[in-house]
Structures are given as structure tokens and as C-alpha cells.
């Protein structure tokens, strides 16, 4: 749809401006070509005259607006105001501007100044940019991310048939013209280049190399003195306004304070010199300055002026009356480090092109001088052009916008300087972190919603989480704050007073909560103040910037409108600390840190180490874990706007990003499953470690292997399943038998058992719970499922071995005594141990105990015979046969009990005399050579089973405890005498608990 023709005023072109002499040529080029490159030096007048040439001479601005972009808000508003003055019409009538926080533009206007970011934002709602018939992209040499993206976007637009009516003018002061012309080759024809001279007067370049030998310890403190010296050098020659380029606000404030003091000293007569010859006005100029303070720079004054500016004054802004330029040769440059994910804002040397831009700011009113505070060789060694921002920035927002607009993939997008692959990969990774892209780098539903929000993707992600977390009201406030400038002011001469005023908003756990408190106070102050003047006075008294508070409100309103359009619900009840900060965390996953109590620095993601910025309320009492709105490297890496967090929140917010590793998988009896220790790492930062987790589902094969090996084979499991109880009982019996017969090899080995269970336990069963579920389903149809038999468990060579020869209880003189067996050479209770109650100590048959039990008798007899001298032993070969014969002759073949009541050694002497006619005495047996386990061990216990003594010598026990034993025996008799008079010994046995 074609808009109404806009009425055009009478245009005049100042003949003093070089571009005016080329206006007809430029107009003809605009009419004849879709793209025109205008390369004009500083001071040529291209910024103010090109929109007028397009409107008055090229017939543009009739079917759409003439859009004119600037890289900075200050430039957009200043240029719009200047063109309106030249046209003699109020701002907004024919020429207006639109910047982020304000718009002065009427329906009848035809020229619209705006930031390049505004035009990009409009492209989302108007992809073909139908609102414009002409676009002027000014200061393209700055190569900001927005400019490069716009130039690529516009090339694609012009290559298609749907905007063949659009005209594009690309301008710059110092530009690689041929490169831009090649970029806009359309239909095989490169864009024409028109070069316009700039200076009206010659400019002398001087170099003042810094003397390294005279450098102070603090170079930054020396810079204001060098600026003072440079000003005095220039003013000795003739008076004139001076424009000084400095890298940042802090350097401007330091220099301003130094120059004012120097002027005061010179005026007072303490030191003569040019500074003392009349009034001097020192004026700062940077983008964060208030509108009133900025306007002072562009208003003339009767005295001499020193304007201290950042690179905001390099291009579009022409500061009037400048005769001299002092160039410190540096600028504060933002670089994004892909590895650390940190934006570094560091002072760097400027390029040759930027230096020439600065020099061009003089020579406008008379012969000029540019004094560079660095050497000529230094200048020659610098790069020709400033690095394009696309080569030093995160591309996440660009990729998201391209996806939303359905443009070509970023790899194929026509950037003038295509970004490196690592930058593209980093942009994709950041969007996946925010869940804006899936694993195939396709836009997700979250990504589509983020693209509709007029904020950085990280901040948009927080808003999405706040919507779901019932804290959208608070998050809108914080999101707007993070997207605008901090309204809290801290003047150099009133820092303590400002800190005291701002202290009431502080929160020791969160700087974000402080933002919400400040917002609530701002709203309350608005409601309480009867007039804007009183409100402004109150805010300024409390060191709060009214302008920045209004800008904050504007952004908040934009965001509130955006979420309302998307029909998001704003919570009416206050959000909790947890709700708000868990939502914030979703957009700050790359800015986390933790510190040990004794460590000064935080360990962050991507192998970073940082400190909390001193301005944070958390700096004095740092938390263990924190998140930060940003990490900025200004020589030291600082976390700004931080809050305490719980590590558990990180897992909830970053579960899709955390890399988990596992160590020491092992079977746990109580849990009945395989457990491992889990470590969670986010971008190199350990979030947790040594966390016990069920490992079976993560590695079912290993889980099943450990289930079989540890639970079923090693019996390390608390289970009451029938098969498990059965197998446990059988294995216990066989292991007892091994102890008794002193053979540790009766039970089949673990490898056999593992193979047996491997063949029967199904795949996928990796825990006790799964095994129990499968067993209960399968057992009814499979009797004896997983039950081992005694025959299977015993080795083949152990056939016939039984436990009868190792009784668990024996009777001595009518009393029953318990027997235990242990196979543990060297242990005090190795072998057979008879448990003897104290009252029965004197009732134990010592002779019978010498014969041990049937299963041990053969070994003891053999050991005793082997202790005999060789001359006697040689009559007893083969020894095993003789031992078997002895046992057969002296024991009952049915019970294994000794037939005689002789001590074992006496029986051997008698048998050797009878069967071998050998005269053997007791002294011939070397009892000390017989293994200890072949002598009965006696464990003396009290009435409660407590162990009183342990010895293999019954006589020693009786000597030590015989008297007590007799008393205990008499007591037992008295207790049962009345009941069992006819059988005192048996009664005593019952009373003493010897069974």
C-alpha cells in the first residue's frame, strides 16, 4: 500500500560544505542505482545533507520515509535537531528521530533519524521495510554488529524482486570504498562510489611520543598531566577550542578534575601559562551524560573550551568551534572471548582510520592541529581499520533474529567480513544453553518466543522462566534494568554520601532484589511528588538520575507491552526469593561461580576466576555460590550484579547442559542395587561430586554383572526370596564344613557360580528390585528357580565329605558342651573350641578332649607320630595306613568315639608296643612340634555367655578359675536340689545353662 505524499519544505544546501558541490551528482546516482556509496571525510557535511539531497533532488521520501541510521542515540538526536534547524521547522514536523527511549516524529515527517538498532528491531514486524523508500546507513566504517547485519540484510532484500524500489545510500568518512562496492554488486554491477573531500582548512599532525623512561608507577595518573601539557603547547600558539579524545568516562572525569585544578592554580598566579589567561570551560562528552550536559557542548560560549570526549565524537557529532584535537590514541573496546564467555572491556590502541577520523574533527573553522600523544612509528604500525564488531562479539542474538526472520543460515549470510566458525559455533551453543535451539540448531518454541522479546536472548530467557515461575512482575523490572543504565549516580566528589543514600536499597543476598527495591521506591516517589520539578529535586538529592529512571520506565513499558501482546500473566502476589532467583538463573548459566571459604576468588565456568565487583552489596560477605548478570574484564575480571544461589537450583535450570561422569560403581547391600558416585560439571565448573546414584540404568550390563557377582555369588544382599534363603543356607553349611575339616576348597569357585547365574538371570535385570519382580513372575511356573543343589555346590573331589565327623555338640560326663570350628592358622581359636560354662569347668573330661573329634583325630595322630624320633618313625611306614589302623583299633566305627579312657599319647604307646613291639615313652613325643589347632581349645564363659578366659590347657584354666567354678557348681546344685535330688549332675547341667 502506497502512503500519502508527504509535503516537502524548501531545501537549502550550505555552499560551504563540500558535499553540497556534489549534490547533483549524488542525486543522479541515487536515481540511477539501487545502492550508492558516499565516501566523505569528516566535515564534508554528508550526514546532514544527504537526506536533503535524497528528498529534494532525487525525489525520495514520497512513497515512504527516508530512514537515516546512526550508530549512537546521541548522534541520532543531534543530527535530527541539526537538520530540522537547517529546514527551519520544529523537530518532528519534517524531520524526527526515534531512539530506544523516545520518539519525536509526526505523521507528516519524511526524514527519520534513528539508531541502527531501531531499524533492525523494525525489521521483525516489517521484514521488507515497506515503511521506507530510501535508507541511509551512516558511519558504516564503524562496522558495528548492527551495521554489518543491516548491510547483509539489505543486500538480500535488494537482490530479491519485492523491494526493487528501495534505494540505499551507505556513507562513511574513512571507508574501504571498493570493498563496500563489491559487497553491493547487484546484477553484475558494483555500486558506484562517490568520494567527497572533508576539511575546509588544512590540519597539521603532530606526534608526542611518551617518554617511557619518565613513566610514573601509575600511567593512568600521568595521562591528565600530559593532556595539560598538550593544551598549553597549543594555546601558546593561539587560542581555540580543544577536543580531547579519551577512552572512557573514568578517564574523562580524572582529566576534567585535573584540568580544573590546573586552571585554578594558573588563575591564582601559583603558576603562569596559557591555562591562566582567561576563563576555561571543561566539558565532558560521553553517551551516558544527561541531555542537558550534552547540549552544553553544542552551545557556543564566550570563553575557551576543552571538550573531553569518548569516540562518540569521532564521527557524526560535529562539536562546533574546534580548532585543536588532542588524541590519546586509545579507546575502550569490547571483545567477547569465546573460550571464557566473558566480555572484555579494555583500553586498546585505535586504528589508523579512527585516528584520522579524530584528526578530521578540527580544521573546520580555521587551520587545525591534531596532536597525537603517541609516536609516528606507533601510528604506522597500527591496523588500517577497526576490527568489525562481528569479529569480536557473541552472535547469539544475531542468529536468533536470523532464525526468526527465516533468513539464510548465518554461515551463508552475506556479511562483509564473515565471522569465524568458532564465533558461529559459540552463538549456537549459547542459544542451545537457553533452550532456544534444539540439537539440530532449529528454532524451538522457546526460541520463537525469545525472538519476539525486544531484549537480549539471555534476558528474554529469564522472562520466560519468570512467566512459568510466578514472578513475572519482578522480572520485568529486573529485565528492564539490565537493558538500561543504572540510575544510581556516584559523583567523584560525593561518593560516600551517594553510597549512604543507596544503602537502603541493598540486600546482602542479592543485587537483583536491590533493583526491585529501587523500582518500588521510584514508583512511590512518583506517587508522592506533587510536581515533576519536586520529584527531580528529590531524586537528584538522593543521587538518582531522573533521566535514567525514566529510560528504565520506558524499557519496562516496552517489555510489559510485549508480554501483554503474548498474553502472559503477571503475578499479583510478591514472588519469593527462590522463585525470582531460580528464574534469573536460567539466563545466567554461563556466569556462575563458587569459592572455598579461604579463597579470595571465585572459580567460574569456562575456567574463569573472578571477584565480586566492589560496588556489590555482597562484596563484604561473599556467598559460597553466586550468579552474575555479567562478567567484565577491565584488567581484572569482575562479576557485576550478583546474587547468592543454591547449587541445587543449577541442576534444575541446566539439567540439559550438565555433563555427568560416574566413578567407583559398586554394589550396595542395603540398597540392593549398583551405586556409583556422580560428578556434575557445567562448562568446566563442578556443581556436585561424590553424589550416590543408582548406576544400573546407566550401565545395565555392568549393573547385571555386579548384581550376580556381589548379591547372588557373594551373598551380599538382604533378601528373603526363597531361592536366596535356600542358597545362602547351603553355602553356609559348606563353608562351615570347610572350617571343620580345614579344607577351604569344598565349595565351587566364584567363577562357576557366576557362570551358573549368568545362564539363568535375564538380560536387563540389574538390581535387586528388578530381580525380585522377575522372580515372582517366573517362579510359579519354574519350581526351584535359581536354587542350587548341594551336589552342584560341592567340588567333585569333595564327594562323600560330611559333617558327622565334626559334631557341633559333645557330651562329657553327662554334660553337653558346644563345639565351634575355625580354620584360621595363628588365631587363638584356630581349630576346635569347646565352650565351657564356669560351673562345669571341673566336670570336663580332659582325657576325652585329647581325642578331639573324629574328623580331626587322624591329623592329630599323624602329627604325634611325626614328632617321634626317626628311628621309631621308620617302623610305621606307610604312615597313613598305620594311622587308619590305629583309629580303627581304638575308636568305635559307628560313633567315632574312643573305646578306651586312656590319654591319646598313652594309647599310642600301648598300640606301638602291641602292634610293632616298639618301646616308646611319653618323652619321645615332641608335643611342641604338633600344630596348636590339634589341641582342644577351651572357652570359659559365665552364666550369661560372656567369655572369661581362653586356653588350650585345661589344667591352667582350672588353676585360675577352679575355686570360682566350684562355687558356681555348688550354687547350681543348691538351686535344683529340691527338684532333682536323684540326679544332681544332670540338674546342675540344666541350671548352669551348659547346653
Secondary structure layout plus pairing:
Layout: H1 23-32, E1 35-40, H2 46-56, E2 65-70, H3 73-87, E3 95-99, E4 102-104, E5 111-115, H4 116-125, E6 132-137, H5 145-159, E7 167-172, H6 177-183, E8 193-196, E9 203-207, H7 219-237, E10 241-245, H8 249-268, E11 280-285, H9 291-298, E12 304-309, E13 322-327, E14 330-337, E15 342-349, H10 352-359, E16 368-372, H11 376-381, H12 396-404, H13 421-433, H14 445-451, H15 457-468, H16 472-482, H17 495-502, H18 511-528, H19 532-541, H20 546-565, H21 577-585, E17 592-594, E18 602-604, E19 609-612, E20 625-633, E21 637-644, H22 647-654, E22 659-668, E23 673-682, E24 685-694, H23 700-713, H24 722-741, H25 750-758, H26 768-778, H27 790-793, E25 809-812, E26 815-822, E27 831-837, H28 846-850, H29 854-866, H30 870-873, H31 879-890, H32 904-916, E28 937-941, E29 947-951, H33 954-977, H34 984-992
Parallel strand pairs: 1-7, 1-8, 2-5, 2-6, 3-5, 6-7, 9-16, 10-12, 10-13, 11-12, 13-16, 15-20, 19-21, 27-28
Antiparallel strand pairs: 3-4, 14-15, 17-18, 17-20, 18-19, 20-21, 22-23, 23-24, 25-26, 26-27, 28-29
Helix pairs in contact: 2-3, 4-5, 7-8, 12-13, 14-15, 15-16, 15-21, 16-18, 16-20, 23-25, 29-31, 33-34
